[in-house]
Design goal:
single chain; Structural Genomics Hypothetical 15.5 Kd Protein In mrcA-pckA Intergenic Region, Chain A; Pseudouridine synthase; eleven-stranded mixed β-sheet; 15 strands; 14% helix
Length: 314
């Protein structure tokens, strides 16, 4: 008879710097390869941190079960939950603050700066909007309802109460949110605008840039020219879908790559962040009917793109 997995219990460790502890569930061990907890942890994390570091963490009580710190010589029990805080690497601070456009008991509408990731991922852990907001607003349960690319600035909706998150995520999934972006890119009078751009976008794991390929379209963006000067255009972009890199791919496909884009039209070599040259893409507007309060809501970013001062915004 197959054993039913029980729901994971709440973490016995508090957040650290706005980051939840890592939770692991000990897997089945049909061959008896791990007589003790130590044996499994050393095998599991040998490549990531090394056996010596695992020993240090066990000695320091860093691995915790539901009833407290775990000793390395405890018998291995499949299905048991353990928690620990990872060692954070030193991260360069993104030297821009997060704006708060709106906050109530249900949501926080953050105005994210360029270069700041929405959630912990890869080498960006503490320097993320989620970690900062949890710390700064003292909201440890805060979660994003959607994500915004690290290099894109603008509005992100965070949910205050875990029980509300599903309703807001469903709203984004079902395309019930009007999202308006602003971009600065070259101006080409030969490109007829406004227009609707539809194409098939593919993003492969391990490949930095998404690409367009022949086939049934899976993405759609409305592109409008708002103003032009000195060879540049200010564009309003209205995505009907949310594919990875969609706006950047579609603008590049029109021959109008967004300024300071390190992926389009050419993938640039990785190097230190140049905070003085942000991608000129801004998530300016979020508009929706709130799924919890049933109110109509419209929020607008207070940021402006460096290549086009806000005083010119219409």
């Amino acid at each position: 008879m197959r054993r039913r997995n029980r729901a994971a219990p709440p973490a016995p460790l508090p957040q650290r710097d706005g980051i939840d502890p890592v939770r692991l569930r000990l897997p089945e061990d049909p061959d008896g390869a791990w007589p003790t907890v130590r044996d499994h942890l050393r095998a599991r994390y040998a490549g990531a941190v090394g056996g010596g570091r695992v020993e240090e963490m066990l000695r320091d009580g860093r691995f915790v079960g539901e009833s407290g710190p775990v000793a390395g010589d405890e018998p291995y029990t499949a299905g048991r939950y353990l928690w620990f805080h990872r060692d954070f690497a030193v991260e360069e601070r993104v030297p821009f603050d997060i704006g708060i456009v709106h906050r109530d008991e249900h949501v926080v509408i953050a105005d994210k700066p360029h270069f700041l990731a929405t959630v912990p991922r890869g080498s960006h852990v503490k320097e993320t909007a989620l970690a900062r907001l949890r710390r700064d607003l003292d909201l440890p349960a805060l979660q994003p309802a959607h994500r915004l690319d690290r290099l894109t600035a603008g509005l992100v909706l965070f949910v205050v109460r875990p029980g509300d998150r599903g309703a807001y995520q469903t709203m984004f999934r079902d395309r019930q949110v009007r999202k308006e972006y602003e971009a600065i890119a070259p101006h080409d009078p030969a490109v007829a605008l406004p227009r609707i751009v539809r194409s098939r976008i593919v993003k492969e794991r391990g490949v930095l840039a998404a690409r367009e390929e022949p086939g049934e379209p899976n993405s759609e963006t409305s592109v409008e020219l708002l103003a032009e000067r000195d060879g540049l255009g200010r564009y309003r972009l209205l995505p009907a879908t949310g594919r990875t890199h969609q706006l950047r791919v579609h603008m590049n496909g029109l021959g109008l790559p967004i300024l300071n884009d390190p992926l389009f039209p050419v993938v640039l070599p990785e190097g230190p962040e140049d905070f003085s040259h942000p991608l000129q893409l801004l998530a300016r507007v979020l508009e929706f009917t709130d799924p919890v309060t049933k109110e109509h809501r419209r929020f607008e970013s207070r940021r402006s793109l460096a290549q086009w001062p806000r005083s010119t915004h219409s």
